[in-house]
Amino acid sequence: MSSPALPLPPTPSVTTPKIVEVLKPEVKTLERVLVDFVSAGAATLAIAPVVICLIDRSVIENASGRSKSVLASVGTSLKTLFTSPHKFIFSKPFALIYLTYCGTYLSANTVDTISSIRNGTDIKTVTAGPEKFATTSIVNMSLGLVKDRSFARMFGTGSPRPVPAPTFVLFAARDALTIFSSFNVPPLLAPYMPQDMLMKPESWAQFLAPASCQIFSTPLHLLGLDLYNRGNVSWKERCKMIKTNYFPSAMARMCRILPAFGFGGVTNAAVRRSLLETLECR
């Protein structure tokens, strides 16, 4: 006689959990490009292009002998600024300064945006590789050489004439040093900067690197100007001119570079990061 079949235990009901897909809002490329433009424009306004225009002119006039000193040239320019501010702000030198730095910041921002899209990284990622150095150098050199050519012809000695090729080469080398120290060195230098409440390490690096670079780039700048201003002069005379004008020119260029790529670089990075964070939250 077979034993009665035991009842099977009830099959437990299995409830399949609903999979909730959380989609991150798409950050459109056009909006990110707009952020790059706004950040570059804001940074250029923040660097006080009036100050840079004054200093650039004073260094050229001092090196050419049109002014007895850097401070004397700055004083003359300040007098013009206060008596006819509209003429100064809407002048060709001011426009050249704005175009040069806005274009440089925009190129750096664009490289970061393209890199993050291509690699699928955080949209706020800041690069420090050869791609950024090459792009920003080409843009800055191109715009900077146009600016320097115009400044040398406007504020140099003698009648306007073609700028010699060696001067272009020296200016290009000067700009390459400045770009490298302004966009590539700060991210590498930041980990070694002090940690305090006054400024972030990134900000310390952004101020220190380009300012220190002027120690090496100022002789290139002065030699390039001298080759334009004095065609047939011995190298001994050129070295004497560089030695005489080195300290005031280096100090002036440091004061110029701090707003240009120090404070301007910090402003560009801060504005861009803030706007991109806003896009992420949308």
Layout of secondary structure:
Layout: H1 29-46, H2 49-64, H3 70-83, H4 85-89, H5 92-119, H6 130-155, H7 165-189, H8 201-229, H9 235-281
Helix pairs in contact: 1-5, 1-9, 2-3, 2-5, 2-9, 5-6, 6-7, 7-8, 8-9
Question: What can you tell me about this protein's structure?
Answer:
The chain is mostly helical. The chain has one domain (29-281). It has nine helices and no strands. It has helices at residues 29-46, 49-64, 70-83, 85-89, 92-119, 130-155, 165-189, 201-229, 235-281. Helix 2 (49-64) crosses helix 3 (70-83), helix 7 (165-189) packs antiparallel against helix 8 and helix 8 (201-229) packs antiparallel against helix 9. The chain is globular and about 60 Å long. One of its GO terms (cellular component) is mitochondrion. This is Sequence orphan.
